[in-house]
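Weekly structure sync, notes
Attendees: PL (lead), two postdocs, one rotation student
Agenda item 3: pending single-chain targets
PL asked that the sequence for the first pending target be pasted directly into the notes so everyone works from the same version. It is reproduced below exactly as submitted, 127 residues in total.
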Amino acid sequence: MIMNGLAVVAAFTILWTLKYYDGTDFSGLKQLREDMTDVLDQERFVISPLHRFVRHPWYFLILIVLWTRSMDQATLISTVLITLYLVIGSRLEENKLLIYHGEQYRHYRSQVPGLFPLPWKYLKTAV
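Predicted structure, written out during the meeting:
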């Protein structure tokens, strides 16, 4: 019961955060529509409410959904592999964000944890 409640809260939180992202940019439709061919980041550096507590809130919320499901052997293997994918993906995304946003992102990264919120480490002021 508690595990399902956590998963539902995480899923609704993901839906709530969608208003802080440009869905057409994220999906690639904006680049297709505007015939963009450069690989530069088209978005400016924006901190949503959840980004004050964790740098990759969607990854964190997806991990909650994954790890609160009942597990058989196949589900456990899949969950472990998806978790590894998210950990590695977050590192690759960090490298990209450092290139795009430089010192601003480096400063933000020093103040906010990556995948798992820590009660004592969060963004208290604007970046």
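Discussion points:
- The radius of gyration is 16 Å.
- Residues 53 and 122 are 5 Å apart (CA to CA).
Action: rotation student to compare against the earlier draft before next sync.
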